[in-house]
Amino acid sequence: MADETELAKQSLLINNIPKNSVDFVMRVLVIRRGSIIPYKNSRNEGTFRTIILVDEEGTKIQATLFNKHIETWKDSLKPNKSYYIAKGRLDRVNPNYSSVHKEVELAFTDNTIIQETEARGFNSQISGWLFIIGTCR
């Protein structure tokens, strides 16, 4: 992979990456890393993990890792850490599932590259978010 200076030059904000693109670099901060969840449907079974990422502009995107990609990046994509992600795939959001971005989500492929970087440049308000999951009464 290119050095950090080259990645910074190539890096695009989430909203500037063409839909269905596979040739891009984005710099994001991990704000949520979900649990590994088993699934089973008529076509497949396995596990998945959802990751919520945010760029320097504050735009969030959801990434879902399935099966072997969970293991491949088990030591990466940690909350409050910043990464360059290259050669992922932007897919249209499936309307049957919830997502943080209204149009696209990030899919990881066998060619996806992830490189940790410094978290500088991210708004402290972004990295300081606290997500509370619960029920209202």
UniProtKB/TrEMBL annotation:
GO molecular function: DNA binding; zinc ion binding
Start and end residues of each Replication protein A 70 kDa DNA-binding subunit B/D first OB fold domain: 47-116
Gene3D superfamilies linked: Nucleic acid-binding proteins
Pfam families linked to this entry: DUF223
Record keywords, A-Z: DNA-binding, Metal-binding, Zinc, Zinc-finger
Family assignment from sequence similarity: Belongs to the replication factor A protein 1 family.
Annotated protein name in UniProt: Replication protein A 70 kDa DNA-binding subunit B/D first OB fold domain-containing protein
Source organism (scientific name): Solanum commersonii
